[in-house]
Amino acid sequence: MEKNLALVLLLAPLCAFIFNVFLGKKAGKGVVGAVGTLSVLVSFFATTYFFSIIQSTGKPIDVINLFQWISLEKFNINFSFLLDQLSVLWLMFVTGIGTLIHMYSISYMHDDENMHKFFAYLNLFVFFMIILVMGGNLLILFIGWEGVGLCSYLLIGFWYKNQEYNDAAKKAFIMNRVGDLGLLIGLFILGYLFNTLDYATLKTTVLSNSDILSNPLVGIAALCLFIGATGKSAQIPLYTWLPDAMAGPTPVSALIHAATMVTAGIFMVTRMHFVFDLAPYVQDIIAVIGAGTAILAASIGLVQNDIKKVLAYSTVSQLGLMFLALGLGAYEVAVFHVITHAFFKACLFLGSGSVIHGLHGEQDMRNMGGLRKAMPITFWTMMISTLAISGIFPLSGFWSKDEILMTAFHGNIVLWVVGSIASIMTAFYMFRLMYLTFFGEFRGTEEQKHHLHESPSLITIPLIILAILATVGGLISLPGNSWLNHYLAPLLSKSEHAAHHLGTTEYGLMGIATVGALLGIGLAYSKYIKKGEVPPQDSQIKGIAKTLYNKYYVDEAYETLFVNPIYKLSHFFRNYFEVFFSEVVFAFGKIANAVAVQGKSIQNGSVGLYLFAFVLGVSSILIYLFLV
């Protein structure tokens, strides 16, 4: 039964994709939305069943082998799926939040002429994410890994008639391929070292072989795997694609940022934790990169004016905190923040979409304000999620972020300071977003003001559910009484981070984190409510704010260092190499043509000339055969 139900879990979104591709246009928008949403809901129900089994027995479901995929002398790979604590937990929010986002999309995308295509891509995205999470080995993970990359390209560039959106899709696709090269090299090294890529066999081999500790290839493999994670989860230096991915429709942003693609790197590192545990210097790199990404993205978020781009840099920053936890070996803490982040970030993105929907496409917060009364459900749900991401007690973000900072404090005091500053910045820019959007006087056009309204229930219901989850989600891992740590304990080989018992130090750290969050909120209140400031127009931004607004000119640096040289190299090959080889090929044709022209003059109808040529030919053959 488990095997059949696992196949239902996996294939339901794929069936919806096929339906929407071939029959969606004729079926109508209502049917398209219903099929797309129900298919993911079916996967969620199946996941819930598996979750209940694992929760009651404490044991994973047996590995589900479909067939032998690759068979070599010493290397065998089965096409198999694994439903253990980690994969089922991940599937819970992939399919659960995925269902809410599909439901939201029915209303949000209703006026789009290609709604059937949008739902088809959305279903395919969820299907590949399920493959990535459920795979029983690294090769199947790689199929899902590449699949979500393809779907992100299709969805980011969904409104393909806009060249800027197309460029954003290409940027996401290419930058992810850079990371994927690192992942592939890591897979090859692990395959070479252990003759397998199967999770269970790999873990057993690694943990039982003490000699492997001296092999430098293990560290190189871990580093390559992390490079793959930097691409998918937007870490330094491969983070710049994620803010540009805002070009896609808002439900896509919510799906990518909250439940699917960007969490893939966290999942992979957690799944392969036994390899990373063998390479402490790689873990140090991960922690430093994570902390650096957190504060870099948070500082950029301070001055962004596009409501979705503020949230995008917030995602990059929060992912940085998750990698900080991974680098410190606190895998369960990173997973905890992935879960709470999925709740409040999905709510925030869908809430921003509700605002954009109410303002007929307006995304610049300088043209908003005073929406609190016109859109009360959107306001309150976003306010709850903003308090959660800011780390205010007792909302979910407080507990998960506090766990990360507490782990950093015990692991490396400098990283704790960096993470704390990033958290203060987060509180500031998130409340900057709220104040500019919902408070003060409306700064849009009269026409927009006249049509202000709350979004329909298909949009507000997912917001309410996600806001509730953002409120109570932290209960799964309270300090000293963590259900999550107990749930994941059979999976993780290290247990020293399993629980932080509350003492004077822990209470003190909680107090510092809370004061920091209140400081950020207070600064935003002073600037945007008390003084009533509105960010200046782009041309008037000066000084450090201009550097932050232009994202430290990293895109421009990449353009100069990588894009332009590659363009010039490709132009060189096109203008010289291609021309040279074309001329060589055409030269053979010209020679053959010239010979043919001369040959035609021989065919003049003279029988005598033909007989002479015949005798000459026969004589030549006889001389060659008998005299040469």
Automatic annotation (TrEMBL):
Membrane topology classification: Multi-pass membrane protein
Residue ranges constituting the NADH-Ubiquinone oxidoreductase (complex I) chain 5 N-terminal domain according to the UniProt record: 69-119
Keywords for this protein: Membrane, Transmembrane, Transmembrane helix
Name of the molecule in the record: NADH-quinone oxidoreductase subunit L
Membrane-traversing stretches: 6-23, 30-51, 88-106, 118-136, 142-160, 181-200, 212-231, 252-273, 285-303, 310-328, 334-356, 377-393, 413-435, 456-478, 507-525, 607-627
Highest taxon above the source species: Bacteria
Stretch forming the signal peptide: none
Membrane keyword on record: yes
Limits of the NADH:quinone oxidoreductase/Mrp antiporter transmembrane domain: 136-426
Keyword Transmembrane helix: yes
Species: Flavobacterium hankyongi
NCBIfam families given in the database record: NDH_I_L (TIGR01974), PRK06590.1 (NF005141)
